[in-house]
Amino acid sequence: MLRTRWREMTSRPALKWTFSTLFWLPMGICFTELLYTVKSVTGRSMQPTLNPDSSVWHDIVLFDRWSVKASRDYNRGDVVAIKSPYDSKLLVKRIVALQGDKVKTLPPYPDPEVKIPEGYAWVEGDEPFKSEDSNHFGPIPLALIDSKLTFIVWPWNRIGPLRKPTLPNPKAQRGPAWRAQKAEVEREERRRARVQVASSST
Amino acid sequence: MVWLHNVQRIVRDATQQFSNVEWKTVRPKVVTALKVVNFVCAWHLFVEHVGWIRYVDGPSMVPTMNVTGEWIVENRMISPKNLARGDLITFVSPLDPSRFVCKRLIGLPGDVICVDPMGKYVPSTEHVVIPKGHIWLSGDNANASRDSREYGPVPMALVRGKFVARVWPLDKLTIFRSNFRYIDEDP
């Protein structure tokens, strides 16, 4: 009796599809929790790397959880998603310094310079004025790092891996785009200049 | 050029063999393998989000837990709201992301805590207010424990679950209850 009911139910294609989706759901959830997931990034704290003013869309980015969870493979300069120490929400920031480094902090932080303790990292947004980062909450435990941002999936004109800023061609025609590219390199240099990398970990 | 001829032959044989295998006969095996993977995934999700039994060791929670040889049921279905002072909290160590540790919850956000009553790390007069979204954790065996006295308040994002009951060894079966007593409460 039950078996015939079951057969009737599963003979309907819509129901069959629902059941098979539910059946395979654990594999899908595990894939997004352990390997890779795609999320949209909101907020202006990572401008101009993500969500630049010129873009009308929120950036959609590939989050690499595997390299963080399996091999703790991240370094200074990587863009990572961290869980906020205050409310566990995901924040997208850049790792500026790791354990042993000395960082010159920016205004909201009480001390002018900090040495990052063992097991901690210093994270900052690329746009320091619009970012809630380590200058507010101090160094964060490495265990709060959730995933690494590796690839911009959308918008279409910026599809591709997240890459380091490069100097613009000095012979090219100078316009707003040229100056923006130059400014990005200078911003990166200024951020590097505030960090004294620990001698043992170079 | 004999070796090249050999390689060509091996490749040709292999492709011929592969083309002889029909998808109809392989398909059930692939589906079975995927079902096994799917089951492992479901089990992983259960352990991560619902809870299971865990082996504990280390001296920091003596006398609540022994140094070795105990298995304890962990509850992963927690939220920041249902944490209470006196709970046995499991969390990822702020000092080392690969370490999973258990300590007792002493203070919730807004509480004023004496950092170290024994004066080992800082003078025993120093007090802190626990910030929003953080908790204060400490080992039951203060002499052999690295806890909030050393690394300060712990963000709730590091908390994974709480320990409910000891199930092994069987003669020491216990359900962990809060051993917290408020000293200004009426007896």
CATH homology superfamily name of the largest domain in chain A:
Umud Fragment, subunit A
Q: Tell me the number of helical segments of chain B per DSSP (H or I, 4 or more residues long).
A: 3
| Strands of chain B, total number | 10
CATH class category of the largest domain in chain B: Mainly Beta
> What low-confidence regions of chain B span 5 or more consecutive residues with pLDDT below 50?
none
Q: Give me the count of strands of chain A.
A: 11
**Topology-level CATH name of the largest domain in chain B:** Umud Fragment, subunit A
The oligomerization state is: heterodimer
Domain Peptidase S26 (chain B): 50-116, 123-168
Protein name (chain B): Peptidase S26 domain-containing protein
Family (chain B): Belongs to the peptidase S26 family. IMP1 subfamily.
InterPro entries (chain B): LexA/Signal_pep-like_sf (IPR036286), Mito_IMP1_subunit (IPR052064), Pept_S26A_signal_pept_1 (IPR000223), Pept_S26A_signal_pept_1_Lys-AS (IPR019757), Peptidase_S26 (IPR019533)
